[in-house]
Amino acid sequence: MNTKTILVDKKSPILYYTPVISWGVFVLVMSLLPSRDLPDALIEVSDLFIHACIYVAWTMLACWGYVQVHQRMKQSAYMVILCCALVFGLGVEFAQKYLTDYRHFEWADILANSTGSIVGLGITFILSRRKK
């Protein structure tokens, strides 16, 4: 068996979770930048709407990775992904509070992150049901 066959045949979980991990790193970096360094287009849109959209994308990428590895979403996977999204969002807020002096911990951001995560899971659930 050659290397090409191994890469094609074997499903490496890290390969399929790379998009959500990359998105998470991007979100963390952007969240820790001073707001003056962010693109003007982002500042013009509602901050809470942006938070929700970011977490819709995060949860959908996590679900996509899960499905690529396990073939289908299990009910427990939805809860694990939701918990991971909530912990990640909370961690980002604490990082803003303790690692910067120009960003702040905001409960409204956590609510928007949570809402986005739930919406992302809802969209994924609906899309997975339509494929059957």
Automatic annotation (TrEMBL):
Annotated TM spans: 14-33, 48-67, 76-95, 107-127
Protein's UniProt keywords contain Nucleus: no
Annotated keywords: Membrane, Transmembrane, Transmembrane helix
Coiled-coil zones: none
Protein name (record): VanZ family protein
NCBIfam families according to UniProt: vanZ_1
PANTHER family: DOMAIN PROTEIN, PUTATIVE (AFU_ORTHOLOGUE AFUA_3G10980)-RELATED (PTHR28008:SF1)
Superkingdom, taxonomy of origin: Bacteria
Organism: Phaeocystidibacter marisrubri
